[in-house]
Amino acid sequence: MNSRVIFFQTIVVLLFNVSCKKEAQVKNTDITNKVNEIVSAQVPEKIPDSIPEGMVWIPGGTFNQGAVAQDNMAMQHEKPSHPVKLDGFFMDITEVTNAQFAAFVKATGYVTTAEKDVDWEEMKKQVPAGTLKPHDSILQSGSMTFKKTKSSVPNLYDFSQWWHWSIGANWKQPNGKGSSIEGKDNYPVVQVSYEDAIAYCKWANRRLPTEAEWEYAAQGGRENTIYFWGDDRSQLSKMANSWEGEFPFNNTKEDGYEFRAPVKSYPENGYGLFDMAGNVWEWTGDWYNTSYYKELASSKQPVLNPKGATKAFNPNNPYVEEKITKGGSFLCSDSYCASYRISSRMGTSRDSSLEHLGFRTVAIPEMLRDSL
User: Fold this and answer.
1) Residue 92 and residue 363: Cα distance in Å, rounded?
2) Which residues contact 51 (CB under 8 A, 6 or more apart)?
3) Cα separation, 346 vs 339, whole angstroms
4) Which of 218, 225, 257, 350 has the highest count of CB atoms within 10 angstroms of its CB?
5) What phi, psi does 116 have (nearest 5°)?
6) What is the pLDDT along the chain (372 residues), one digit of tens a residue?
7) Residue 295: helix, strand or coil by DSSP?
8) How do the residues of the chain divide into helix, strand and coil, expressed in percent and rounded to 5?
9) Phi (first) and psi of residue 72, to 5 degrees
10) Which of 326, 283, 271, 91 lies closest to 189 in space, CA to CA?
11) CA 261, chain centre distance (Å)
12) Spatial CA neighbour of 35 closest among 344, 363, 291, 346
């Protein structure tokens, strides 16, 4: 999802359909080469003696990445599943919170993407050629915010019915100008772009997880289940912050919250991680490439520590280079996206900032040696 493109298309109202020729799938030789990174001799993993505060050690192992056979909600871009081998790593127990992000901003003076005016020179690369520049009054700093509809929505593909560009929306005013995070230190920070998350990681001496690391950690030690707690959908309201009721019209709040929830509001998974399903989407470091899973699946052996495709490719959104986000959010429902499933994934433009998108970080012992 690209928030700045969505706002532009919504406000400027592009009253034409762009017919894109079906492009031949990108044959990425670098992706193919990754398939040859087969696991060879195994060396017993050394468990670190010390774990950083707020993180947990995820032991290395092998798993099948992608949709499980019994998942009837799985989409084609979650298939085919393929074996992956990962070394161990540290991961944040929770999503990065408002308090943690505020400490970063205070220490560095960092200004987020949503706090800057829209760069038309960059924006026009992501919209059809010939699109006219909107008035400068529209290109002000802001971000995407959610607003419930007043009645049932027959077309759930038209997300402009509930997503709106809000001038003044940013991580400190996540629901739009005048909103606040006061008293919400332990809520996940949102309205942060990929670039914002990377800047935080550099300051904290950490990095974003790869998609494979995120998915493996989300399983919590279980194998081949739809959700981190198993396959029982009836447990959703007890286990995750999602949309219960008719999206986007009525949220019954069966899970206790209508919008974002404080971190640790729901049970942890088998590795001690919270909110690996629902609450807010989370950035990963991988490019979104619809060819990538098929390339990896051509190998019958596990690929070692995959870092994702070397370039983005999405025939449905050819103008934008997207990164993979995982985990779903408080806006996910069975009727809309059901992205609280472990294998669920979404492509999101790097400059997007949304009120249901945050991140968590990972690290390996070598990165934190000086601080352990």
Assistant:
1) 9
2) 57, 90
3) 9
4) 218
5) -110, 150
6) 555 544 444 443 332 333 333 333 434 434 434 433 433 334 457 778 889 999 999 999 999 999 999 999 999 999 999 999 999 999 999 999 999 999 999 999 999 999 997 766 666 566 556 666 565 556 788 999 999 999 998 888 887 898 998 999 999 999 999 999 999 999 999 999 999 999 999 999 999 999 999 999 999 999 999 999 999 999 999 999 999 999 999 999 999 999 999 999 999 999 999 999 999 999 999 999 999 999 988 877 899 999 999 999 999 988 899 999 999 999 999 888 899 999 999 999 999 999 999 999 999 988 876 554
7) helix
8) 20, 20, 60
9) -75, -10
10) 283
11) 17
12) 291
Residue 184 has phi, psi (to 5 degrees) of -125, 40
Please tell me the distance from the alpha carbon of residue 330 to that of residue 190, in angstroms, as a whole number.
12
For residues 168 and 177, is the Cβ–Cβ distance under 8 A? yes
Please check whether the domain covering 3-16+23-368 is classified as CATH 1.10.472.80.
no
- Residue type at 159? F
Residue spans of the domains in the chain: they are 3-16+23-368
DSSP states of 107-151: HH----GGGS---HHHHGGGS-TTPPPPPTTTSSSEEEEE---SS
- Compute how many other C-beta atoms are within 10 angstroms of the C-beta atom of residue 203: 14
